Amino acid sequence: GAIAFVVEQLHAQPDPWQEGALRMYHRGKPRTALKACKNPGKTAVLAWCSWHFLSVYPDPNIAATAISGDNLRDNLWKEMAKWQQKSKFLQDQFQWTAERIFLKARPATWWMSARKWSKSADQQQQSATLSGMHADYVMFVLDETGSMPRAVMASADAALGSGVVSKLLQAGNPERLEGPLYDAC
């Protein structure tokens, strides 16, 4: 399962709450929301689940975004690189770039993509950030959804109905009484 993958491939020992989050992700639930204060390891869990999904499903497509392009690059995408460096398997099989992670043997069909929108984007442009994802195995990873526009979440939600396995993982700090994280919790 996902916990064994984290322990054996990433050489990490999840905290009890992280184990619970990994179990929820692994049980096949389409949506998992992680709501917590700053620094308990939410982004690590998102990265662990992303690496697991990339490693166990054939030709998976993952779209990842965050509240801003800078946040995505400096947090989730950096976390993806950090955990890849801890696993010989992931280093051998996957290529990490600034905007994409892909299986070296199948770069066109087996990947995770960093997606962002401009700060001046309207709702339609925000919604387009995650639109167009169609695959048998698809996952959306959204970081800092406490302040994320609802339009971004709507695109991910709409795609959950297709595919063999479709998942949406979101995490954030409970800073507002509105928005995607508030709605999920």
Structure commentary:
The protein is α/β, with parallel strands linked by helices and 185 residues long. Helices cover 42% and strands 20% of the residues. The chain contains 8 helices and 7 strands, in the order ααβαβααβββαβαβα. The protein has helices at 2-9, 16-26, 42-56, 69-84, 88-93, 123-128, 150-159, 180-184; strands spanning 31-35, 61-66, 94-96, 100-103, 111-114, 137-143, 165-172. A 7-stranded mixed β-sheet has the order 1-7-6-2-5-4-3, sandwiched between helices. A hairpin with a 3-residue loop joins strand 3 (94-96) and strand 4 (100-103). Helix 2 runs parallel beside helix 3 and helix 3 (42-56) crosses helix 4 (69-84). The longest helix has 16 residues, at 69-84. It is globular and about 40 Å long.
